[in-house]
Amino acid sequence: MMKNKCLNVLLLIPCLLAAPAVLANTPGITPISAADYQEECGSCHFAYQPELLPSASWRKMMAGLHDHFGENAELGADAGARLTAYLVDHAADHTDNKRSRRIMRSLGTTVPLRITDVPYIKKEHRELPRRLVQDNDKVKSLSNCDACHTQAVKGIYSESGINIPGHGRWDD
Ligand code: HEC
Ligand code: HEC
To answer: Ligand 2 within 6 A of 118 CB?
Structure first.
């Protein structure tokens, strides 16, 4: 049987010291694993991870890319099918990380097209004043996750990775 390293008395202190840093950096959300998703869906904005919305939302969005929030984001049939499968397979209702479960619980039966319309996401940001988001030239919209979440691309949204442009770290 493998011996737990942290039970070794000599290693106990370094293990305890390392634990908080390790926890703080545990990615809650799985990073993007499809290169073409990054390319096709990350050209106009941050490439949102599929685990941030349920499969029903992704299906709906992918069926209406010709009018995607006022833009034409239409894909060829092959790429469209491939990316839809990627999004659906990794959607919030098909994974079991803590954040996706919270997203699903907060949604009930609603099918939002925006992550920023998910009640759990809205609630997490409700204390942010306009001054730091919409009226902040370096942010402009809550949709720009990576403007504040410096490790968003790694799927890390925890407080330790937050740095609001012109404001800095967030302590609530
Ligand atoms: C031609 C540019 C363009 C491309 C390509 C594009 N988008 Fe968008 N997307 C937009 C715009 C514009 C918005 C609205 C942004 C806003 O309101 O700030 C948006 C918003 C979104 C949102 C909602 C963000 C929120 O507010 O929660 C999601 C999710 C999204 N896009 C996913 C995708 C996916 C998936 C793809 C690839 C199939 C994609 N986008 C490709 C322009 C694009
Ligand atoms: C203006 C900066 C800003 C933007 C843009 C932003 N966030 Fe946040 N986010 C924050 C702050 C600040 C908190 C912590 C709020 C608190 O604790 O009161 C937070 C909290 C969160 C949390 C909860 C973290 C935790 O550990 O409890 C998640 C998840 C999250 N954001 C995801 C997102 C996603 C996804 C987007 C993009 C759709 C986004 N955020 C856009 C600033 C931002």
So the answer is: no
Whole-model pTM: value is: 0.89
Ligand 2 close to Cβ of residue 103 (< 6 A): no
Find tokens 């992550």 and name the residue: 115
Number of domains present in the structure of the chain: 2
Burial of 160 (0-12, 13-18, 19+ CB in 10 A): middle
Instruction: Answer yes or no: is 13 within a domain.
Output: no
Burial of 70 (0-12, 13-18, 19+ CB in 10 A): exposed
pLDDT tens digit string along 3-62?
444 445 444 445 444 444 445 455 689 999 998 999 999 999 999 999 999 999 999 999
Provide the token pair at 44.
Answer: 């106009």
For residues 40 and 59, state if they share a domain. yes
Whether 149 lines ligand 2, by a CB cut-off of 6 Å, is yes
What is the rounded distance in angstroms from the CA atom of residue 32 to the CA atom of residue 62?
17
For residue 45, the ligand closest to its alpha carbon is 1
